Amino acid sequence: MSRRSASLHAKYLIVLALAIAGAIPYGCDAAWSAAAGGGIQLLNLSVLERGVRAAFSTGAADQATAIAQVMLVLRTVLFFTAVIYVLAATPVLPLAFLAGLLAIVPAAIWHGLTPQAPQAPR
């Protein structure tokens, strides 16, 4: 994992922790629902990063790129399946769950507004 993407994950975990802490006054169910949404999104973010790196890696064979693109589509299908399953089959609170899922938005904005540190020449 590159240093830049590691900082996105760290920022996401900070925003997610704030979302979970904000859900605590509404009860344990709200906090667990936000954590469930955040966990699904964290897994989604990690798999997405790996898939995008594989799809756009330099020097990759056309077949490897095609497989990576299929994996990205499969990741999307699995993500939506997991969200629908959790909402339909578990007692999560939908708004708190959504807050956990969408905690990536302010984290991504924060990450985008943070200047990138200069890299040492290789």
Describe this structure in words.
The chain has 5 helices and no strands. The chain has one domain (3-113). The chain has 122 residues and is mainly α. Helix 1 runs antiparallel to helix 2 (28-55), helix 2 runs antiparallel to helix 3 and helix 2 packs parallel to helix 4. The protein is 78% helix and 0% strand. The protein is flat and about 50 Å long.
Radius of gyration, in angstroms, nearest whole number: 17 Å
| Average pLDDT figure | 87
Number of domains: 1
Global outline:
flat
What share of the residues does DSSP label as strand, in percent?
under 5%
- What structural category do the secondary elements indicate? mainly alpha
SS elements, strand count: 0
Compressed to H and E, one letter per element, the order equals HHHHH
Biggest β-sheet description: none
Kindly list the characteristics that best describe this protein.
5 helices, single chain, 122 residues, mainly alpha, flat
Briefly summarize what is shown:
By secondary structure, this protein is mainly α. It has helices spanning 3-23, 28-55, 62-89, 94-101, 104-113.
Topology:
Elements: H1 3-23, H2 28-55, H3 62-89, H4 94-101, H5 104-113
